Structure formats: C-alpha cells, structure tokens
Task: structure prediction
Amino acid sequence: MRKVVVIVGPTASGKSELAVKLARRFDGEIVSADSRQVYRGLDIGSGKITQKETMGIPHHLLDVASPKRTFTVAQYQRRAIQAIASISRRNKLPFFVGGSPFYIYAVVDGIVIPEVKPNTKLRQELEKLSIEELYEKLKSLDPARANTIEQKNKRRLVRALEIVLTTGKPISPLQKNAPSFDVLMLGIRRSPEELKKRIKKRLDKRLRQGMIREVERLHREGVSWRRLEAFGLEYRYIAQFFQGKITKQEMITRIQKESEAFVRRQMVWFKKDPRIHWISIYAEAKRLVELNLQ
Result:
C-alpha cells in the first residue's frame, strides 16, 4: 500500500515550509491541495510557493488550470490521485499538503463526486438568492459541505447547491471509493492569537509584493471582476476595491477578518478528524514520519 504523508492546518500556519523541509529529509515530492493555487496567475494572493522556496522539491497540481475557466473538485481529485501514484512509482514519498478540507478529503477518503454538468436555468434561479440565503439552503441540504465551504463565495455556494439539487443527495454521504493509501495525517497546531498575527504579517508582505497589481493584471488579461470575486478572500476584496465598491482600508480590513473566519471554519472541520496528529515543531513531525516508514 502506498504511503502518503498528509499535512493540513489553517491558513498561514506554515504548511508549505514544513512540507519542503520534510520532503528534503525523506526524499519526497509535494502535491498541493489548494483550491486557488491550481490556477495560473493566482500567485501572490493565493500564497503559491515560489521557485526559490521549493528548494528544488518538485510540486504538483500548481498552475494546471486557466483562471478563466472552472476547475472542478472532481477534476482535481483525478489529477491528485494520479500525481500521488506517479510519485510512489518512482519510489519517492508523496506529501499531500494544503488547507482546503474538501480537496483533501476528496482524495484521502475517495469521495465519489458526481460529474454534474452546469444547469443554466438552475444557476440563474440560485443567483437570484443572496449569499446568506444560499448558505442557509446549503446548510439544510448538505451540512457537511456547508462546514467546509467559504461562506461568502457565491460561485461555490451555487455550484454546491447545483450538485445536491441535481443528484438529490448531499455530497458527504455519497459513495466513497477510498484509494489504497497508507495515510499519515499531520496537522500544524497554532494558537488563535499566533494565527491572527501570522495572517497580518502575511497580508502586509503580499501587499508589498504586489498583490494588488496581480489582480489588476489578471483583469487586464481577460479575467472578469465577477470571476475574480469568485476566487474569494484576497481576490474578492481587491476586485471590489478596483470597482469602487470599497476603500483600500476596507479592503485590507476585510481580507484580514475573512482570513480569520476562514481559519475558524478550517479548524472546525479538521478537529473532527481523529486521524490527525497535531504537531507544533519540526522534530515532532520528523519523528512521526520516521515511525510511519518503519
């Protein structure tokens, strides 16, 4: 059975750095489990690892889709499982790393996600509802999916409802086809106060690096404001700033607050998984990987 090390944790907790360090120590390669880093050009705002930061460790599932088109969870799931299998066949250790719970569990637990085609009429009806109404509707129809979704991301709310209304059942209890992985799950533990500071520091850094110019460039290259808003968090509020909907200070404040709220939702989901070994330092993670490989 293929061994896979899964590294999860809230946004800004340091997953990428830990993964690179462990991959260098254990001759591994990294598969990204991030719903925005799959898109080309979403670099600074999504926190995509730079070439220098990879330290020569191969990374998979980055920059595989156009930001103008939707890359579904089902598409992601297939590609991620293929990447993990390929890494294992080359006798390398796969590290599956990210903070998008639905992407992680789609692969780790083999959730069978139906290939539901877009339903224009249904989408138009759902689009008429407010974000709050869409979320409440999803919560009543598929509470497990509601727990993992970005609550203010209208595009994802509409898509989740489209699936559950088309199939007649929530995604969560759908048939599972768990891949044959021997999974070690590590979770990075940080206090809420520390995470808040790390999010603030990261936001300041991204603004200095040119995150606002990145969004402007994406729009200039043909990505609509609506599409950019659909990517959530940083992209939503920067797009709103460019459209004159909010001030620059409101943009910064909302990114910070929404990131903090996203952390809380991530942790609600991860804390329910008894498989996760929570660690706070590299030495703990290294010891657990060594034990798993014995």
User: Anything to note?
Assistant: Strands lie at 2-8, 28-32, 59-60, 93-97, 181-188, 276-279. Residues 193-262 form a domain with the Helix Hairpins fold (CATH 1.10.287.890).
